[in-house]
Amino acid sequence: MQEIKLPFAEALKRSFSFVFNHMEVFWKISLLWGVLLTLIEALEGFPSLCLTEECSNQQRFPVSMWFTLLAGVSIMISYITYVIKRTEYKSFFNLRLDKRDLKYLWAAVKLIVAAVVIAFVSSLILGIIGKFLGLALEKSTFILLFMLSLCVVLFFFMRYTLVFPAIALENSEIGFEKSYALTKGNINSIFWGSFFISLPIILMNLFIVSFYMALGKNIYIDFIFSFILCMLGFINIALKASFFAHIYQYFIYFYEKSQTKEKAE
Hints:
The chain is mainly α. It is 77% helix and 0% strand.
């Protein structure tokens, strides 16, 4: 099959414009999740607004963190499905959880575990080589090697991105191997696309946090900013979902076109 080349700028443009042209759908998919998460945050003392090390250590694994993960996966799958299938949402009270969420999480866990193992082994080998060359490697140096190795591994793992929209659409044909094959030559486009699609929200988050710190703590302010940060996170997920859905459509279109051509021949 001929190598498919993803149009980087066009994919980003379509992904951004789709989300901001369909904001009503975003609110329908995510609003109830946002309200529930803000209430859970309030019960736990607003851990997302905790900006000191002491506070972070006291709330290392809050319930809201796991709820955010669950909500994020649900919104991601719902939004990918909407982009491709135009699923209709009539109300603003939508909570969707099904077997696809578990499959999505399982696929993510497999990739993360594989990335961590490969990065650990790579950094260990590099450490052994360093010692063999007479270099004194401290614990901090090994951690740095591990983090650098992990970044490199995750960069190459971007070729498995199509697996996640395929899970959302229940397309069992597109697994890890097929995704890796279809995205050949497109690592940079997918990686940097994933980065730039999130950049505006990252910058907005920094601004909101700075504004919150300037206002000072207050229960009403905490509620408002917790909800704002929560919904910003969900917009980021919607943007990522839009990007993944658009590149999935692009790769699958040319893949199916080549399959049809091969059958005709």
